[in-house]
Predict the structure.
Amino acid sequence: MKRNLKTGRVAKALLFSDDLELPYDKLIDYYRLRFQIEFNFRDAKQYWGLEDFMNIKETQVTNAANFSLFMVTFSKLLLPQIESLGQKSILDLKATFRARKYTRRIINSLSLNAEEFLINNPVFQAAELGKIHENVL
């Protein structure tokens, strides 16, 4: 049972299991984990190409699936560390790193040292065109 503290409304959920010996707190934990697993697969398909790869050999399929799921975990670890740059979503995270990669390549092709530019440098900010949320400085 879940109560909304502002409205006082109560929400109830019915959880089912065929294991009659399973304690209710474990059942609730399992349902939470199940939905987290589903969210991870959704993110792997939506953001990291799990549904887009065209491999047919077992090793290639395994590598592509593992890479997609690894990137879900890695992006969840990385996103809070980039929060100071105003990142709000995985799409913003991808756009930021893609822009920085291209910007570094362009700067290096001009025989400049890309490492001399700071992360918050306006050059990088201007290159982050694909972001959904603006930077909060």
Remarks:
- The longest helix spans residues 24-47.
- Strands lie at 2-3, 10-11.
- The chain has a mean pLDDT of 80.
- The radius of gyration is 22 Å.
